Each structure stands twice: as C-alpha cells, then as structure tokens.
Amino acid sequence: MPEGRIIKALAGFYYVSHEEGIFQCRGRGNFRKRKISPLVGDWVEFESSNVTDGYILDVSERKNELVRPPVANIDQALLVFSAVEPAFAPVLLDRFLVHIEQNHIHPVIVVSKMDLVSDEEKESIEEYMSMYRDIGYEVIPTSTKAAADLPHFHELFKDKVTVFAGQSGVGKSSLLNLINPELNLETNAISTHLGRGKHTTRHVELIPFGEGLVADTPGFSSLDFTDISTEDLSRLFPEMESRLDGCKFRGCTHTSEPKCAVKTAVDDGEIHKGRYDNYVSFLQEIKEQKRRY
C-alpha cells in the first residue's frame, strides 16, 4: 500500500504527496467512528486509481500535533519576534517556548527588524539574544531587508517540517511571502489602536521550500497552560530542567522550598532572573486554572 504525507486539507479532501505525484483523497467512512481526523503533516496509507479519486486507509502515529495551525509531525518552529514595532516581548516568547518544548518541537528564535533599533534598544535586545543562546536556543537576527537572510533559511528548513509563530505584526507573513512569492499572504499594517497585526487564512498547507516543508499559516495553538501541570512546568525551562536533581525535595516548585538548586542558580546569576520570574508567573497561572476547574 503506498504511503505519503498530507500536505493540504480543504473542503473534505486531503492532498497526499507521494513520489509519483499529489493524490486527492477522501478519508475512509469509519474514521469518524474511530474518532480519527487526518491532519496536514500526517503520514498516511492510501489507495488511488487516479490522482483525483483516492482514499486514505490509515493514519500513522503522530509525534506531535498543533491545534492552530492544525498540523502534525512538526520538526521545528520559527518564533518570530520583532526588536521594535511591536516591542520585543520576552514574557510572550517564554510562553511560546514552554508550549513548543511541551510538544517536542525544536524552537528557533528569529528577532526581526534589527535594522530599526536605536543603539540603546540594540544593547538590550542583544543581551536577551545572548541569554537565549546561553540556554541553548538558536537565535537568528534579521532585518527588514530579509532577502539577505534567505540562504540561511534554505539550510535551516532542509529535511524538516517548519511552522511559524510569534507576535502579531512582526513580519511572519512577509517572511513567508519572501520564501514563496506565490503565497501572496495578506500582510496588513499593524493596528496602532490594538497594537497587533491582522491575519486571516482559510486552510493550512505545507509548501516546499528548499529541501523542506513550511506551513503557510502563521499561528499557534492556544497559549494557556491547561495541559501543563505544576510538576512539569520547570522541565520545560531547559536551564531549570538540567538542575532538578540538585533540589533537596522531589516535586520542588522552586519557589519557597529550602535547598533548591534552581533558586541558588538564580541567586548566582546562572539562571536569568527575568526567565525565573516568568516561570513563577506561569506557575501561579496554572494553579489558578486548577482552582477554577
């Protein structure tokens, strides 16, 4: 039975990419009974007598999936955050990083509009970029003349499925349009009243870029912490996760417990105080959600 990857889902049809071409397929009738809903990015078994009349027979197990955009089996996420217009937002970036770590997706931080920053702003942004690099994250600064960065992105996407996420109005659509001008994604100006951009899309599609695939839809699943426990949160901060064995108590929340390796690292400047403060804020949010439910 041939196997391929769903690269587009639209109006009840799934478009499956195979070495012999792209096949338009429907899902089997019993998928609904089995509560299986194929997603873009799924590896599937299918049968087809021609390119427009196929059926998906089975969906392979996923390594991860997102709700928005609805994509499965993602290798990496490009988190696009601007240096200015809108201002760099480390709290929001840390929120994205927690969710991406939870979904076992490799994050790459892209800091856009670096050519628009003042000298004073540049120093602050570079401190943040250095901090994230020290944690182990890949950080790529880009300018509004992003075409100069394309060769690096070609290499970055090789043999990977990539999604874009990040602040609104930071240039995700512009970057995607640059990668594939045929997309012609709508890139509305930032709403100064709301402080965020606008973007509307009807479906998600994986588009070839270089030797990889890129989801053509900026976005990410809900950014609340309903699926993350207080015990798991610190494991989603790599600089904390590597120190958990040094804490005296199992299940240490790194807030009020004595002999906590994480708090010691914060005091010694080995863990950035801003990252720790964001962790504490997220922890409180999770506790409040538990109380509500």
TrEMBL record:
Cofactor(s) annotated in UniProt: Zn(2+)
Chief subcellular location: cytoplasm
InterPro entries the UniProt entry points to: G_CP_dom (IPR030378), NA-bd_OB-fold (IPR012340), P-loop_NTPase (IPR027417), Ribosome_biogen_GTPase_RsgA (IPR004881), RsgA_GTPase_dom (IPR010914), RsgA_N (IPR031944)
Cofactor-binding details, from the entry: Binds 1 zinc ion per subunit.
Keyword Cytoplasm applies: yes
Signal peptide interval: none
Binding site for Zn(2+): C247, C252, H254, C260
Keywords: Cytoplasm, GTP-binding, Hydrolase, Metal-binding, Nucleotide-binding, Ribosome biogenesis, RNA-binding, rRNA-binding, Zinc
Localization per record: Cytoplasm
CP-type G domain boundaries: 63-223
Annotated binding of GTP, by residue: S112, K113, M114, D115, G166, Q167, S168, G169, V170, G171, K172, S173, S174
Chain ranges of the EngC GTPase domain: 72-221
EC class (word): hydrolase
Pfam families: RsgA_GTPase (PF03193), RsgA_N (PF16745)
Family statement: Belongs to the TRAFAC class YlqF/YawG GTPase family. RsgA subfamily.
Matching HAMAP family: GTPase_RsgA
Subunit organization: Monomer. Associates with 30S ribosomal subunit, binds 16S rRNA.
Protein function: One of several proteins that assist in the late maturation steps of the functional core of the 30S ribosomal subunit. Helps release RbfA from mature subunits. May play a role in the assembly of ribosomal proteins into the subunit. Circularly permuted GTPase that catalyzes slow GTP hydrolysis, GTPase activity is stimulated by the 30S ribosomal subunit.
Protein name in UniProt: Small ribosomal subunit biogenesis GTPase RsgA
Record gene name: rsgA
